């Protein structure tokens, strides 16, 4: 007897696997217990709950390895400013956000991500000790960490780069406290990666401290890397090397690093990142919005491991599948067998799971794996016909086509609505928090 039995679906159990028509999924004790054709179900199989999802495609839950949910507060504005909000005067910034505003905005961003098919998000920003559980309460898996830095962020947007040991000690100790509370729990609903903000917002001695802390605790590290020309120029001036060279020197460039962006790289940087087996958190839409493209084709060829992320201002991972595919093809000017929709699905599922240290637990729909999956309604006009279900999803699908989301065996989105919260209230609270922040930012408070 299953806890949940799903039938009538087209199933893609993992990247590079052929679709299974008229498939069924059986979930027991938060794990997949049956995966295959409905005709192969054990005779007399029953379930506590039964979902008939005819006309739906089911894929593994998507893993968004780099996002800042609170930064939905600058949606539709920061994209056209040409630089990240933390470096931009006149817009709300992290040090301005109050605790109640952080919770409201984080829940808004996490709800958006979950409704669009993310079953795990890796979020960083401020007030993480309270935003992490507030987001996880919606039902999705949340890895989160406060941004770790020793720069005084209140001066960065004004051109002041002042590093203080006390700030570094405070932010690193906050992260360790959050990890003690939320990392390594039996249900894996929450977790922590040490979020060293960026090479330019962390002094070189402080980066060494972060590397040593990661070795001592066994925690992975995520960071922004080579995301801007300003960062590259500052590290060259400060340390006489490139950002990847600096991370290698301090002991952070390794196969436990999730590096977001990786745009402004030399050929030697690409080779160095590839040789280290770094997880590249590719943010194709966000980068393209700023007029840049990460050299993902050369990074993958060099040995880097590709993952996908939305970063700021939106949380639609299905759209990111499409942007990742297209941006890679723009780099070579052609369609190739080694850059297809299934490669993007791998990056968003199995690749993301590996980056989060959960390669043997999530990222594919297989017996024994944690029961995370997403159902997409293929009966919508833009998804018909779907001669190749995955190709159709990647090229014309959207996050709003996701009808059901299951995390740890629990239906957390059903018929397009979250099951654990009132979405209208989450939206109202997020909008109010953003309005208050913008009012203070414009007043210079």
TrEMBL record:
<dbReference type="InterPro" id="IPR050287">
    <property type="entry name" value="MTA/SAH_deaminase"/>
</dbReference>
<feature type="domain" description="Amidohydrolase-related">
    <location>
        <begin position="57"/>
        <end position="412"/>
    </location>
</feature>
<dbReference type="InterPro" id="IPR032466">
    <property type="entry name" value="Metal_Hydrolase"/>
</dbReference>
<dbReference type="Pfam" id="PF01979">
    <property type="entry name" value="Amidohydro_1"/>
</dbReference>
<keyword id="KW-0378">Hydrolase</keyword>
<dbReference type="InterPro" id="IPR011059">
    <property type="entry name" value="Metal-dep_hydrolase_composite"/>
</dbReference>
<dbReference type="InterPro" id="IPR006680">
    <property type="entry name" value="Amidohydro-rel"/>
</dbReference>
<protein>
    <submittedName>
        <fullName>Amidohydrolase family protein</fullName>
    </submittedName>
</protein>
<comment type="similarity">
    <text>Belongs to the metallo-dependent hydrolases superfamily. ATZ/TRZ family.</text>
</comment>
